[in-house]
Amino acid sequence: MLEREERMRPMQAALIAAACAIMPSALHAQASVVQTEFDEGDFSVSIAHDALTDANSSFILSIADNEQGALGWKCMEDGLNVILVLGTYYEGDEDADIVVQYRFDQDEAEPQEYWALLSGHEMAYIAMDRVVTFTERALQSHRVVVRAVDPYDNETRTFVVGMRGLEKALHNLPCATAAKHAAVTGSSM
Asked: What domains, with CATH codes, occur in the chain?
């Protein structure tokens, strides 16, 4: 357990940095105070708040089987976000996008799509209009296989990420309830 926690810390720090990159208003206060950390199945749950604004900056993260990347969910100003931790620098295309393809369990792979790189270029996030669908599919799955390709040099990384415990882990993110409500009612977040 302690070994897993030590492996998770750099990924958790990377996800917090990603949150600050997406939320420009948080750039001046990048210090998140982690109050509690615990495991929920394959996920590490970090209950945290922004040190300056007290805004909830909690997140959940599942490390890939090869321990070289991770998949996480986090509440940000625009709602629930899905973030892929690449574990290395990707240059991206002229729009700072990378190509991502994924499959849930043994289902057919989804078509390739572009995910935007975050500042630092070591993480990418799915388009907001895909978050609810991706999350719903992940909730019904045991694992997600994600392949990320850097269009700059075709560097390719593939991650197998466990989804056990996702539903309980998401209960710790206040925006996950709003995303679920939006999916049921058909409203946008």
From this structure: 2-180 (2.60.40.1880)
